[in-house]
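Hi X.,

You mentioned you wanted examples for the new student's onboarding notes, showing what a folding record looks like when two proteins sit in one file. Here is a clean example. The first protein comes first, with its sequence line followed by its structure tokens.
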Amino acid sequence: MTTGDMGQSEASGSTLLRALASGRATLLLGQRHSPGLLDSLKRDIAAITDQPDSDDLVRLLSAVRDDSSLEGLRRAFEIHPVAPELVEVAENPWSYVLTSAVDPQVHEAFQRPGSSGRQLRVMFAGHAGTLARSGSTTLTLLRLFGALEERDPTYRPPTSDLELRKQTRLDLPLVLSELPRLIGPGGHLAVVGVGSDDWLDVETLALSCGDLPEGSVHWFSSHEQPIPTDELQSLFGDRLRLYTGSLASEFAVASTDSERAALDQARTQLLHPAGRQMTIRRGEESAVVAFSPDEWRRLSQIAVVLDDDVVQPPPLGEEEERQAFRDFLYRVQRIPDWAGVARGFLFEREAALSLLERVERELAAPRSVHATDAADLDDVSRRSSRLPILIQGAPASGKSRLLHWLAYQLRLRDHVCGLRLADERARLVRTGRARLLCARRQDAGILRGC
């Protein structure tokens, strides 16, 4: 990149940052949003379906026909944590997000910051009557080619060349033709993680951007299977601004202190608009622990903590509740849909009440894992609330749903409940965030019950 090009890139990055801070930036996320993830998923699918390794994702997916292979595929996803690069992208206040990716990491990354601010609304190309705009309380995520975690085959990715051609030539142009209206006057489009092997038709995208002003398409080149620079420039012309670094690194280089401060303020106001509070009971006494927006943001990076808002979901109309129930049933919930749990969408398992009674009994009188003498050694499991309670069952038998129900019921009873996010980024910051939670809990006098 020449000195002139570098100066133009810095100015463009600053322009995008200002658009993002003012809520006028749309994100188009490609299949190569996280380093190594797509290739690793292809290898996993090949192993699960007993196929040779292949770069043809459609051919690999064509073998995922029965529930057992689909369940194996879902479990394979769980060993791939959300990459820090994707989290950094998701933590920005985008006005709208479109993605050609089909992995569940996308949903989890955007649901994580959204759980602390805007609600995530997921839509599917070909099944959305209109591209509903995001708002101050909702972020819309449009999946262009479906999602592998969906249980309904209608919303899963194409499994044949014919299905893929139908979606790329019929459904995709209809969606992309709405891009100028979606982006709006003065808006900008950021393209992240689109490689040459992406299902997204780049030429169709370029035609859809034909009426956008100069410098309004910001392309962050994928380091895996990158699209040649001259090809992109010939398609997008002067509307294109190319970057070789990641979104976060380009912002760090191109922006001023005041611009970064404006973006941080937008993140705080939109993604984390208010503080949170938890009512905590200890015996007959209860106390309210308040978290500032910044504290809640830091805490939500490593855990989904159930606050008082969980037990009071916003009311829905009849049609909205029907759609919410459908989403609750069909979507894999690595991060639970607590609003759905609160609305009673989970049925009560046979073991639920006895498990709740056991956990409440243990929480009421915490005891040590250490036996007082040799005679107590055989009774440790019955006298200690410090040992874990293990839930055993066959795959897809409802273990996770049971724990979701249990966590919600405990929160109703003013106990502190959280879902730990076990990924690499969380591991690096877990110690500091855990200290924050325990410090706030100590203020309420319940640290001993952690």
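Then the second protein repeats the pattern, sequence line and then tokens:
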Amino acid sequence: MPIKSVLYLLGTLLGIFFIVLVSVHHQAQKQQAPVQVVVYNAPSVQLPENLSQPLSPKEAPLNKSKVNASLETTYDLPSGILSLVHAQETSGRCKVVSSAQAKGCFQFRDIAIKDVTQRFNYKFDPFNYKESAKAAAMKLAYLYSRVSVFTNASIEARWSLVLAAYNAGLTTVTNSKWDVYADTAQFYPQVTKHINYPETRNYVNSIASKLFGTKHLVQQGDSLYKISNKYNKPIKELIELVGTTTIYPDQIIKVN
């Protein structure tokens, strides 16, 4: 073999050896290189204290009957009057504003809210049942004290005047002389017959009949048959209640 060819072959083999040697050395360095670990230190978060406490049970719904009973005892009101007024005013609702701008559960207008706030030093939310029921109780008790000053009527008749005053205003009651006409009244129909505002008359009759029992004031042209049909009362039961088949104008018949 010529010398040139031998030298060329040796050079080629040395080149290949050198390439392999460098490759092996580089691979060894990669395997021995330390692994760099990056640690992320997240900022600490302070949890609210209440999360460490047991969750409180869901707030129980308001017991309106219990609220009413307590207020009626406190302010010496007839039992059941608050629920009846609430039902008559808003059909048992609270988020209500009337066309006359009366607001909330017991339908307070702004002037009435201001009066309660100033007279009783009691600021209240008319849309909150518990607060507005207290305001209504205080107002009813106040109206009863005022009515009692200028009438000799029975307790039932006085409360009928109070209901009229709650609906139409105390000034309307006195200016219309409903209290004068009812001065000797014993039963609510003897009061409402003098109320010449149909809305207020129906308002008082509706609530008073539930508070004191349904009563009918006999008028000219009435008969037991007509009264029986009006109250859906069997004629036989009505005669037993009256105790006779003879009735006369201005007679009070206790239907229920």
